[in-house]
Input
Amino acid sequence: MRTSLRNLAWAALLGSSSSLACSCYGPQTFCGVLHPPYPNPEWWIPDAVVLGVKLGDIAHGMDVKVVTVFSGSVQENDTLRVWGDTGLNCRVYAETWAAGDTVVWALQWTDFAGGSMEQEGDYLISVCGTYWLEYANGIVSGALLEEGVIESVPIDQFVAFVAGCLTTTVAEGAGEDPLIVRADGGALWLSMITRQRAQLSIVDALGRDLISRDWDGSPVQFSGMAPGAYLVLVDVGERRWGRKVALY
Output
């Protein structure tokens, strides 16, 4: 089912003629591909986000040794077959990276558009958005949150960054979302529909904890915060709710 949905997406993007070169669009930030601002977001969302080392080339693809898993069902030390472009696909060429390069990749299940060598369980690296980031000396860099801007985050904070990008309006929990979040004039206003004992955390775009405190759900204002993207997390017992907020 995953691949059939994506095949429809590629068909719509490429048109009916197989002779056409790739023509597609997608989120131009890494956070954007994890939580796309488009209808039918499953077309863009990766199935795995990993830090990996390219082992070598095979045909139009490459083998990648997984170092760290940020999302997806793969395991550390797995070797993944990742297919690139053949000249007609909406993919990044595998030759973009040399053997031994360590990279953060956002991978999707293969759509089998590159020929019979591609097998179930293989991946592809899409060109329709920002699906990879550079890595060197413990630092991940690229268009993380702002299009056309090279931003950096230490690898030990990248886990929180990915989790924040993947968080939707209700990240975890059951029942009605109790959070009321409002950004106004550079201030962040928070409250809950019902008063209850909770743990409140506010995390910045680099995964740093800015605020961590007990909270009873009563209205509270945080002012003087710099413009940017923030993740508000509220834990009530075993439940968690998350909300992404942008201050301008």
About this structure: Confidence is low (pLDDT under 50) at residues 1-20, 168-174. The two ends are 40 Å apart (CA to CA). The longest strand covers residues 48-58.
